[in-house]
Design a protein that fits this description.
The protein has 163 residues and is of the alpha/beta class. The chain has five helices and seven strands; from the N terminus they run E-H-E-H-E-H-E-E-E-H-E-H.
Amino acid sequence: MIQSLTITEACQYIKRLLSMNYSLLCIGTYLRSDDAACLELCDKLQATGIYNNIVKCEFGLENCFDEVLQHKRDSVIICDAIISHTLKPGTIAKFDLKDIDEGIEVLTTHTIPLTYSINILIKMGSVKNIELIGIVAQDLSIGMQLSEAIKNTVEQLYNCLKS
């Protein structure tokens, strides 16, 4: 079930999971405007040094399998930009794998679809628990700037997570 979260709810949820040894996997590309939302969050969090379980997966989850395996954590939070026709841009959504294509579209700029990449991780035996978080994108055109709504969401979530 797709669940819309406030900044505070998303922050508390992510903090709780990170404290339980989950790794936060941030997926996206800097080349398609709002698709960089989770990468920007990841960059900001890595710069603080507060968390040692943040993994940046530029261009897709498949590009950071090695790093996920090196972290030796069997639980991950996957954060990616998403498309939703029912949620406003900048909304943070918690969802399950079965919600993909049933109201949530994970961006397809990645080489391998997210559902396949997750299945590969599971079959490798490295990941057992998966949580999915998305930030609803507004602008997916070619460009390197986040739209204002997405920039505000990323900044607010970062400020909460760093405190």
